[in-house]
Amino acid sequence: MRRNIKLVVSYDGTDFAGWQIQSEDRSVQGVIETALADLHDMPVSITGAGRTDSGVHATGQVGNFFTEKSNIPEKKFRDALNSRLPGDVRILSSIEVPMSFHSRRDALDRQYEYRLIDGVPGPAHMARFAWMVKRMPSVNQLNDMASVICGTHDYSTFATAGDTNESKIRRINHAVFLSEGPVTLFRINGNAFLWRMVRSLLGTMIDLGNRGGGADRMRGILDSRDRNEAGPTAPARGLFLTKVNYG
Description:
This protein has 247 residues and is α+β, with helices and mostly antiparallel strands. The chain has helices at 28-40, 76-82, 139-148, 197-210, 215-224, and strands at 3-11, 47-48, 57-67, 89-97, 109-118, 131-133, 151-154, 169-180, 183-190, 239-245.
């Protein structure tokens, strides 16, 4: 009997060219499908909820695959796959879901978090997982700008060249900066995101804040729909896909 298995996946994206299978480069999808093929003695494909970029991490990526195996309990797929996966990818959970479930199309929203550290050098153990910012605007200043990007807007300003989405309209449910000791956490939740959109939004706010700008200027940049108005794109290493919601 064919079954549909949903996985929650965590990975350190440092040594990956992103989630999606690449022709030559190492990908998260690729190593999971290698483990699935070893488990099934045949090729098995997996669909991910989000196509994270090169160097981006995840603590709550979701994927699903179809299997004919009836002798493995749903929760045991986690252990069976982890025993075949490299150390920088871990399956956190595995459950059987309805055959109609699709990890990408059924997602209502996705949450990302970005970690920043004020000052250089930062703690050595954070070098792979945070952006060490030489000068950090205040959290209040950053939150004033973050309030501007919430809602439904055309985010063409923050769409990287090469983004193939015909529509640049997206809905951001919330965006907030939080101070957690030496770390400033940027949390953003939306129905979907353009290619490198989160990193472009963040890099623009940090740059604008350091140049004395605020919410009014951020609103003008957003409304311009002009990529040339955006600031530098934040590096990939601080970004994590943390949650995918299905209602």
